[in-house]
Amino acid sequence: MPEHVYKVVELVGSSKVGIDDAIQTAIGRAGASLRNLRWFEVIQVRGEIVEGRVGHYQVTLKAGFTLLDGLRASGGGGRRA
Where residue 14 sits, what CATH number does that domain have? Predict the structure, then answer.
């Protein structure tokens, strides 16, 4: 089994629909600019109360993605010494 190294980033997703939708929003947006997303961990859940009701959900996540090997990890433009 190959060994992996992960980079961890913190994301905040929000939604008027619910917590699951806030998570999907964060992961979907991160996936548009980060390759190899592998896992996430919910760190914090918050909400905004509007006129006595939940108006907005906000979820803070840590997400991990696999780092690429060799030149591809740094953009692939240079040569190795």
Answer: 3.30.1660.10
Q: What is the mean pLDDT of residues 6-18?
A: 96
64: number of Cβ within 10 Å: 17
Q: For residue 66, what is the enclosing H or E element? A: strand 53-66
Quick one: tokens of 7? 């980079």
Q: How far apart are CA 67 and CA 39, in angstroms?
A: 13
DSSP one-letter code for 76: S
* pTM score over 0.70: yes
Quote the CA–CA distance of 37 and 23 in Å, as a whole number: 14
